[in-house]
Amino acid sequence: MSAIWLQIGQCGNQVGQEWWKLVSSEKVPDSAVNRYPFYTRDGKLSALSVDSEPKVVRRLLREVKTGSFRDSNILVGLRGRGNNWAFGYHGPQSEDETSLLHRAMASFRKEVERRDSYSGVILLHSLSGGTGSGLGARLCESIREEFPMGYILSVAIAPHQGGECPLQHFNSLLCLSWLQRYADGVLLFHNDDILRRMQASGGKKIEQVPALEPQISFSDMNTHIASCLAALMYPVRSLRTPSGVSIGLEPWELLRSVCPVPTTKFLYTSQVNKRGTASWDGMLSSIVRTLPRHSCTGKIHQSTAVLAVARGSGVDTFNRSLAPIMTKMKQGYGCVSWNPHPLNYWTDPWNIVDQTSPSQSLTICANHSSVSDYMQRVLEKARIMYDAHAYLHWYWKHGCEEGDFLQAFEILDSVVDEYSAAGDH
């Protein structure tokens, strides 16, 4: 039941680097028992790094020297993709560059063959960059076509609403529509949301400048995303086999828990970590307080399913107070009435998120209708640009067609409608 990790573009590779730091830490207990889902038999990480230019993956080359990252799984092109989805999806015209997709798929096939049992792939990528959005969408489509029985879980990072690139709304529109078509689930992280939560919590690794707001870097935000992934993906005791060995069920049990309807697959993740001994009820309250309550039209947000992962030395108290915690979670996340089993939970006595002892972390992943607010913003901004014919020539130039945009608008409109009607089933 092992997975393959595929890091695509600058953002995907930076998040991936932070993720592997946590997973491969020497502080992790029982690493030999828990390492199987992430390593092949020869001790190499079951991961691929793909980027259209070499500067971002240079740090990974150091990992190659230590023997953890397979050098043949670092696949780099010679030029970037110009922050353009069409350029990333179709690739440049020159023969030497069009091979990046083919090389990535060839390495992916070899990695599948190395695994005892291939169960799926986790994609790490952004929605706004040309490589992360365009090439990421193309790889997602290609993997679905070649390995239709395997799961595809996307970890997608949305750009700041204020703007990182003038093409980001088109890129996000097209990439989201491809993920809706080909992925089984999408862990959606929004940069603005992460920044707001980290500023509110005064999270670790934030430099405090007198008389100024805490300075939060992209590295801090990548670390936060990686810690959420570690909480959800790192082996938990409650999912181990009777032999005590993890076989990597976590990503796929996550999908089965929080994606009960195939048409609604975008997931909202929140996390609280406390050093020492903390109240689980208090940690849950701090998460629930940050939840978006109403849509821009005033409609109350609801959840079709929720998964809570409690890690740390106090999991026994979590289990003892399970009933009131589940009741509070069901109310706080506004679980829909038509799902008879909307809540699930996992526990593990080791806190991979913060490897100091004692510490506790509570991570909640929900299929929450607030994602429709982000989708609606992308649709509105992309439609304004499309109606004004802004930047479209850059997409036509690289092989995109009008039908790609029209289909993307239609797909995202249907996603917004599905989430709006989630509580009415």
Mean pLDDT, to the nearest integer, reads 88
Oligomer: single chain
- Stated plainly, the CATH topology of the largest domain is called Rossmann fold
Residue ranges: pLDDT <50 for 5 or more in a row? 203-213
Approximate shape = globular
Percent of residues in helices comes to: 40-55%
What is the CATH homology-level superfamily of the largest domain? Tubulin/FtsZ, GTPase domain
Please report the first level of CATH classification, the CATH class of the largest domain.
Alpha Beta
Strand order of the largest sheet: 3-2-1-4-5-6-7-10-8-9
The count of helical stretches stands at 16
Please give the CATH architecture of the largest domain: 3-Layer(aba) Sandwich
Strand content: 15-25%
| SSE series | EHHEHEHHEHEHEHHHEHEHHEEHHH
Give a written overview of the molecule:
The chain is α/β, with parallel strands linked by helices and 425 residues long. It has three domains: 2-258, Rossmann fold, CATH 3.40.50; 269-370, 60s Ribosomal Protein L30, Chain: A; 373-424, Helix hairpin bin (Helix Hairpins, Orthogonal Bundle). 45% of the residues lie in helices and 17% in strands. It has helices at 9-23, 31-34, 58-66, 85-90, 95-114, 130-146, 168-182, 191-201, 218-233, 250-258, 280-289, 315-320, 322-332, 371-387, 392-397, 402-420; strands at residues 2-8, 47-51, 74-76, 118-126, 151-158, 185-190, 266-275, 303-312, 343-348, 359-368. The chain has a ten-stranded mixed beta sheet with strand order 3-2-1-4-5-6-7-10-8-9, with helices on both faces. Strand 4 (118-126), helix 6 and strand 5 (151-158) form a beta-alpha-beta unit. Helix 1 packs across helix 6 (130-146). The longest helix is centred in the first third of the chain and has 20 residues, at 95-114. The protein is globular and about 60 Å long. 49% of the residues are buried.
